[in-house]
Amino acid sequence: QVQLVESGGGLVQAGGSLRLSCAASGIAVSDHAISWYRQPPGMSREMVADITVGGDTYYLNSVKGRFIISRDNAKNTMYLQMDSLKPEDTATYYCAVQSWQIYLGRGTQVTVSS
Question: How far is the C-alpha of 11 from the C-alpha of 41, rounded, in Å?
Answer without folding.
Answer: 15
